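Q: We require from you a single protein entry containing the residue sequence and its fold in token form, and nothing else.
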Amino acid sequence: MPELPEVEALRAYLDEHLTGRVVERVLPLAVSVLKTYDPPLTALEGQEAAAVARHGKFLAVRIGALHLVTHLARAGWLRWQDTLPAPPPRPGKGPLALRVVLAGGGGFDLTEAGTQKRLAVYVVRDPQEVPGIARLGPDPLAEDFDRDVFAALLAGERRQIKGVLRDQSVIAGIGNAYSDEILHAARVSPFKLASSFDEAQVTQLHAAVRGTLREAVGRAHGVAAGKLKAEKRSGLRVHGRAGETCPVCGDTIRSVSFADSSLEYCATCQTGGKPLADRRLSRLLK
């Protein structure tokens, strides 16, 4: 799933390649992708693209007086093409969900792999009209996201810190992968209650949030859209690396499975050497 660093890299890439170009056609190719109908997609045609913004994991391209907003969800991706195939694509064939054709050639595709169709596209007058954007928490890379702001978000939270970090209404842009990376960097158990952090632990976790995301954004900066997925995987220390060696202490990275996802962690670095039980049990093994 693309998270804040990858979406920020896509924003910068689109900002460079799309700004100033005129949209010739917008072709919806999957019934499920379009979440709005007024204004219609055709209202974008003939309009010039301007700056591209990021709202958490959402991308918002200003086109004329409107905004084309997309959320890539778990299996969506954006593929830029300097030259598009001449024959128009056929709806319902393959992963292609939407194509934006630019005057003068080229454009980009939105694709989605798998059977769970969650890729979402909106055409709105203001990005705040998109429900997912309207309920976003603060951006963790914003200048004003300081330690005190972070502490206030954790205060009174009786949930486990892993879930709090992933909650987009609390903090925008962090997903499954980078929450694992942040907690490993901070040496914190993913099952620790957010409200149980002392002052020093809040400071340490805030530094891990900012540092981990900034490092990932830096790695992704300038990487072509088609190579961002591989870059993300190469930079992860624990997420998706169950059975491998922790780069910090040398212990074996462990995994806890959920219905449709998993988390990875290092017991030595994060849980005092105690393996975490299956998430369904919600407790440490004794």
Notes: The longest strand covers residues 49-55. The first helix runs from residue 4 to 18. Residues 26 and 100 are 5 Å apart (CA to CA).
